[in-house]
Amino acid sequence: MTIRSTTEEVKSRASNDGYEIHIVRYPDGIPNWHLVTAYLKLRKEVFVDRLEWPLFHAEELEFEQYDTFDTTYVIATQHMRVVGGARLRRTDQRSGGGNLRYSYMIRDACLGLLPGLPEDLCYHLPPEDEHVWELTRMVVDGPPVVTKLILETTNEFLNAVGANSVLFLGSPAFLRMARGWRWPAASLGPISGNQDGRFQVIECPVRHL
To answer: What's the pLDDT score for residue 14?
Structure first.
């Protein structure tokens, strides 16, 4: 199913501190694709250089099989500098070729396709549903307001494309933070962990505007 809306164009939300949140997706977002490159660079700086996660990286960028032209990026800037971002994928999307076709990170981990991530992330196998999206690889190099702006803009985008809910893979603290902002988030599985830390799958309904 192809969803067309004005949100396919690059949009931004400004704040009093100079923060802007951009929705960048192919093909309308090509003029702003440099923001995606800067976001992948920030992921490498934070996840690989600072946190020392054993993630694939090349040319100072951290990326993987879920970073494709089918992916939607929510990117925060401050005075033109990328200070945060996240990756959005519809859960019925497929990427890759040959016999191995990836869907999205949380489901593929539960299916045992991602070495290093636990298979028991969820109590039940998560869905492949055009109305359910996944948000992963959130990284913020700034105050909590940046995270909040990213999530608010994500909700606006998902509301516009007819999504019902979004799945997150993040730290247990994210669940407490979401509830603190009155997001009706709920855990879909136990708190898990590996050498990178502790994390949990969380689902949050899209709030209709």
So the answer is: 54
* pLDDT for 182: 76
Please give the model's pTM, rounded to 2 decimal places.
0.87
Q: What is the distance in angstroms between the CA of the first residue and the CA of the last residue of the chain?
A: 23
Going by C-beta distance under 8 Å and a sequence separation of 6 or more, which residues neighbour residue 205? 164, 165, 184
Joined together, the tokens standing for residue 143 give 């105050």
Could you tell me if 39 and 75 are in contact, meaning their C-beta atoms sit under 8 angstroms apart? yes
Q: Which domain holds residue 153?
A: 6-205
Query: Running DSSP on this structure, what letter comes out for residue 124?
Result: S
Distance CA 154, CA 89 (A): 12
Q: What is the pLDDT of residue 102?
A: 86
Q: Where are the alpha helices (DSSP H) in the chain?
A: 33-43, 105-110, 144-160, 172-180
pLDDT exceeds 80 at position 160: yes
For residue 146, the domain's CATH number is: 3.40.630.30
Bond into 126 cis (ω within 30): no
In a domain, 30, yes or no: yes
